[in-house]
Amino acid sequence: MKKILAIAFFPLSLLLILSSANPIAKKPSILIFSKTNGFRHESIPAGIEAIKKLGAANGFDVVATEDSLAINKRNLKKFAAVVFLSPTGKVFGPAQEKAFQEYIERGGGFVGIHAATDCEYNWPWYGKLVGAYFKGHPGQQEAKLIIVDKNHPSTADLPDSWVRRDEWYNFKDINPDIKVLIKIDESSYKGGENGGDHPMAWYHAYDGGRAFYTELGHTNESFSDPLYLKHVLGGIRYAMGK
Questions:
Q1: N or C: fewer beta carbons within 10 Å in the chain?
Q2: Orientation of helix 44-58 relative to helix 226-240, angle to 10°
Q3: Beta strands 29-33 and 179-184, pairing class
């Protein structure tokens, strides 16, 4: 009888051991931060909605906030990456700066979209993380983008030459260590000021973490463009370490 009981309970015991060794994987989460203390882009709500849909379709959760106090050590531990969706102006105090810098130093991921280069001008560490600062822009117009590196998840599905309408930034204080993914052909539009190597999207390892930035995304229409959304999704995946 004892032998029968032992045999009967063995599979259950083994199942419990295997279950404890392989718990159900929790979906990763990302945080969208879109606080503005300067110009506010009308496309922010469309961007939040589009990224939430990307998360639902690709296995990650998305939380959105405009509360600077959400940028703290305890809260940031929950997120595989933080997306700066067109924040502008001074958005952090010293405590938030410290928490976010430590988050990156611990291996966190950063995604900057469009006006992420138009904030925190007095925080040099952030300037190097995002990769450049906004200098100015001409009016919205169609221009030709050139994909210079397709060996990255954000550009793998893009055409070699990509013509689209958006608002095109000129940059200052460009970090020389960024790895450029997309540049813009200044002969294809009016108002470019960065010359033949005018970057529009890039990535780099920085201070222990990963950073991706795309200038594209001023317009509402961007966030319903399948190619653009593939571009953003690839940047998020890179930042998450996927």
A1: N
A2: 70
A3: unpaired
- Is 7 part of a structural domain of the chain? no
Residue 126 lies in a domain: yes
Q: Is residue 3 part of a domain?
A: no
Asked whether the whole model's pTM tops 0.85, one would answer: yes
The total domain count for the chain is: 1
Q: Please check whether residue 1 lies inside any domain of the structure.
A: no
pLDDT of residue 24: 55
- Report the alpha-carbon angle 29-34-35, nearest 5: 130
DSSP state of 89: B
* Two tokens, residue 164: 């689209």
CA distance 234 to 153: 4
Q: Which of 139, 155, 136, 138 is nearest to 147 (CA)?
A: 155
9-40 pLDDT tens trace: 334 443 333 344 444 568 999 999 999 999 99
Domain range for 162: 27-240
List the CATH number of the domain containing 62.
3.40.50.880
Distances, alpha carbon 41 to alpha carbons 46, 57, 81, 111, 217, in Å: 10, 25, 22, 17, 10
For residues 185 and 145, the answer to whether their CB atoms sit within 8 Å is: yes
- Looking at 34-155, which runs of residues are DSSP E strands? 61-65, 81-85, 109-113, 133-136, 141-147
Residues 204-207: contacts with CB within 8 Å, 24+ apart?
A: 204/131, 204/175, 204/177, 204/178, 204/179, 206/104, 206/110, 206/128, 206/129, 206/177, 207/101, 207/104, 207/105, 207/125, 207/129
The token pair at 22 is 């392989």
Q: What is the mean pLDDT of residues 33-48?
A: 98
% of the chain beyond a pLDDT of 90: 89
* Cα 167 from Cα 96, distance rounded (Å): 30
